[in-house]
Amino acid sequence: MTAYESSGDPGAGARPAPGAEPGGYDAVVLAGGAARRLGGADKPGLRVGGRALLDRVLTACAGARATVVVAEPRPTVRPVTWAREDPPGGGPLAALAAGLRHTTSEHVVVVSADLPFLGGPVVVRLLSALADGAADGVLLTDADGRDQPLVAAYRASALRRELAALARGHGGPAGLPLRRLTGALRLTRVPDAVASFDCDTWDDIATARARIREHGHVLDEWISAAKDELGIDLDVDTGVLLDLARDAAHSVARPAAPLTTFLVGYAVGRAQGGPEAVAEAARKAADLALRWAEEAAETRPDAAKPDAAGPADAEPTATKPADAKPDAAETRPGPAPDAAPDPRPDA
């Protein structure tokens, strides 16, 4: 297989584009590997929460100016630049060098493609720690305190420096372990057992799939999956929409809840609005639902009006149907009104 990059020193970057945004970052995603512990399965394509692992990572790095994926090209949720290590299967260090050639930013996020719980806030945290300190890189540590160099943000100049030194000493990065590079860097460590969780086995996949369905995670996971599937980048306050659905269901009818939220989204989409437009449209729809409820309360029939001849709280007298049979009390025999008295003393 031919590498996509031009020849040169490992990791030599392209010339920065004119007007490149200062303070931005690029992302390099390593999505190759044989996945032997998964029986050779296509690990980046395995789904967690309905989304491929690679797409989940790409969403977490959505703020990157450029995203390079080192792997065979495939459909992805976001546009990326593809690269391959040379030689194929040359290991993570060779893959990093291949991806780094396509970057121009000084700050580079380097991640593997098997991180189901990596999110945008974690990426921002890594980049902020890198910018605020003097280290060459900031990486996460896992639940056991082990370094995770493929969940990290690095200074590109430091990576290129060490890659060049390895090229001089070993002829290139192929076949070398990643620690040969990271061991020469000044690193800051950030503990995060969740974001650093990677999927190496089928048990890991099962754990990840179970966790996203836990209470407190499932709604956010579902919304993220739906946004990716629909190609939506808009971030909105889901609480506003849930409140609207509740008001529509209670004030109008249950089927009004999904229909109303759909109409709000459709209206905002037609107007090409942002989060503020969603909030305003939801407010208008919620006000409408409350007006429906108020009208229903005003026009609800009153309780039966009291009889003019009796008090309002008097219990109504039961009326027996004409053909109803008399009860036992009514049929018990008694003296006739005009019967003569019995003359007997003990009567």
TrEMBL record:
Stored PANTHER family: MOLYBDENUM COFACTOR GUANYLYLTRANSFERASE (PTHR19136)
Protein name (record): NTP transferase domain-containing protein
Originating organism: Streptomyces olivaceus
Superkingdom of origin: Bacteria
Gene3D superfamilies assigned: Spore Coat Polysaccharide Biosynthesis Protein SpsA, Chain A
Chain intervals for the UniProt region annotation (Disordered): 1-21, 293-347
Residues covered by the DUF6457 domain: 215-296
MobA-like NTP transferase domain sequence ranges: 27-171
Key word Nucleotide-binding present: yes
Keywords for this protein: Cytoplasm, GTP-binding, Magnesium, Metal-binding, Molybdenum cofactor biosynthesis, Nucleotide-binding, Transferase
Matching Pfam families: DUF6457 (PF20058), NTP_transf_3 (PF12804)
